[in-house]
Amino acid sequence: MATTTTVMVVEDDPAFLARFCRIVSQSPELSLLAAVGDLASALRAIERQGPDVLLTDLGLPDGSGIDLIRETARRHPATDIMVITVFGDEQHVIASIEAGATGYILKDSLPDEFVALISQLRAGGSPISPVIARQLLRRMQSPASPAQAGESRPPAPETVLSARESEVLGLIAKGFNFAEIARLLEVSPHTITAHVKKIYQKLAVHSRGEAVYEALRMGLL
């Protein structure tokens, strides 16, 4: 029997919480592990068990979802984390990525085919609302950024990526998932996973989005 993807939903708006729970419950591919509306309950839930996918808002009544992202990434590195929020400002986006989020979707642009986003996340993709993607690109392409000014900081020796690791990271930055990268490079998915783990170690990061962000900041992409 095929295993289902377990999902935990953290959302303080009752209407959105009900919507997410209904979507998850109606999909044969997904299983609702927990649904809570505050940070304290969410932290207790991840102490008991880590979900395959965490869907979380940032503005919770008793704290920030970023703290939950950070704690989940620490306790359960295999969990894929997607932010679903009204906050589209740079500070929240960057903080979420640095904490360990892989996807970032604005509530006002939530697509009907929401299950497909979860599948994309589990396949190694990083679902991001277009307006957020453009914001990140503008940040990286800003004339004031070191990379544009020709002042990119040389990476420390221990963070220098091999040619294949750079190739893998470049494909991740273009939006390919791990299975697609394996096919493109004609290697096994296990080999790609091994490369990604080495990339994470060298860049001291915990997610695909954070790896791309850090590599751009260091001038490695």
In short, what is this structure?
The chain is an alpha/beta fold and about 220 residues long. The protein has ten helices and seven strands.
Secondary structure tally, helices: 10
Amino- and carboxy-terminal Cα gap:
42 Å
Class of the largest domain in CATH? Alpha Beta
Derived structural class? alpha/beta
What percent of the residues sit in helical stretches (DSSP H or I)?
A: 40-55%
In percent terms, what proportion of residues is strand?
Answer: 5-15%
Report on this model:
There is one protein chain. This protein has 221 residues and is an alpha/beta fold. It has two domains: 5-138, Response regulator (Rossmann fold, 3-Layer(aba) Sandwich), CATH 3.40.50.2300; 147-218, Winged helix-like DNA-binding domain superfamily/Winged helix DNA-binding domain (Arc Repressor Mutant, subunit A, Orthogonal Bundle). It has ten helices and seven strands. The protein is globular. 36% of the residues are buried.
List the topology elements.
Layout: E1 5-10, H1 14-26, E2 30-36, H2 39-48, E3 53-56, E4 59-60, E5 63-64, H3 65-75, E6 80-85, H4 90-99, E7 103-106, H5 114-122, H6 130-141, H7 163-173, H8 178-185, H9 189-203, H10 208-218
Parallel strand pairs: 1-2, 1-3, 3-6, 6-7
Antiparallel strand pairs: 4-5
Helix pairs in contact: 2-3, 3-4, 7-9, 7-10, 8-9
